[in-house]
Amino acid sequence: MAKRKRLSPAKPEFLAAAPEVKSALPAPRAPITGVASDASATAALSEMAMMMEDARKQGRMVIEVPLEQIDLTYLTRDRMGLDADDMQALTDSIRRRGQQTPIEVTELGAGKYGLISGWRRCQALQHLHDDTGLARHAVALALIRLPQDRPAAYVAMVEENEIRIGLSYYERARIAVKAVDAGVFKDEKQALLQLFHSASRAKRSKIRSFLGLVRGLDKALKYPEAIGERMGLRLAKRLEETPAAAGQLAQQLRKARITSADEEQALITGFLQGKTAPAKPQYRDRPLRGGVVARLYEDGRIELRGAAIPAKLRDQLLAWLDRSLG
């Protein structure tokens, strides 16, 4: 009888499920999924870039502009006075805390910008950069403005300064005159209407009265921004009634060697009252050796000023004068 082959029992490990094999590479995405994802990211970046550019151009984003790229003479400035104490306070503030208020500029192309407002801030930054050499003082924080033309730029400058510090009547009239002279406006009437469109008719009338002062006395006055409303209107009336008065007052102002606003206003007051200002002596200084200055007057007088003259030299000088005049 044939023997049957005995079979050994099945081993459990042979019946276990095969181990999972993981690929080192991620499962490939469907092509359309990758394309859609990339397109979405590109669109988001493009939209963000457009929003940033729009914010920059519309003046809603502060940018850094090198001072050397800013044209400070783009507009004739409306503010005339530059108080030394105020300027020093502004410079010290920027030194301690940095520039807190952005300037306003308009793009001129080729990397250049025209200044609309912020002239004093630019001056303070330039002074700090010259003094310290620090790179952070060589750039100004700025907002881009988009005036449609130069008249709009002048209006923006005037409005900004009227809100911040206010302008004197003389300064208002002067910017109107200078804008007309520069061809920005066709005449003074148009300049007043556009530059001071929000002012009352009475206020524009007063500014118009100051136009004659600017035309006749701008080169002779040293402290015109200090002329108050009442004095300015009186003077404007005088110049209108007597056309030759502007030349007469200008001559007095030039001869008077004015050194302060009070002196200038005192002279103007005297002129309005019909008084003639006493002429100050005319002279020229000639520096000599040893710190001595010879002051030569037109009437022939000579004064020696400065360091003390040694007694020996004084005696020699007097002896020489005695011989020469004898």
Automatic annotation (TrEMBL):
Domain ParB-like N-terminal as annotated: residue spans: 63-161
A GO cellular component entry from the record: chromosome
GO terms under biological process: chromosome segregation
Gene3D superfamilies reported for this sequence: 3.90.1530.30
Pfam family, one: ParB_N
Family matches, as SMART domains: ParB
Name of the protein this chain belongs to: Plasmid replication protein RepB
UniProt source species: hydrothermal vent metagenome
Upper classification of the organism: unclassified sequences, metagenomes, ecological metagenomes
